[in-house]
Known about the structure:
- This protein is mainly alpha-helical.
- It has helices at 2-22, 47-74.
- The longest helix has 28 residues, at 47-74.
Amino acid sequence: MTVALSIILIMTSVLLVVLILLHRGKGGGLSNLFGGGVSSSLGGSSVVEKNLDRLTIGAGLVWAACIVALGLLLKK
């Protein structure tokens, strides 16, 4: 169980790094390379950016759950 949680933790850590780098900052970000630079004039954020936010939050929740689960399993 500990090995499986460790693998999930490593995978979500790498995924979080990639997703955070894809977010658009003040200067544009890497998301412009993948078509994220087109934004709607009404919403303020594009659909791509909103979906990227949701994916990042989801990956962060999985990452936090793995940290807590590993901490509980390794506590003796």
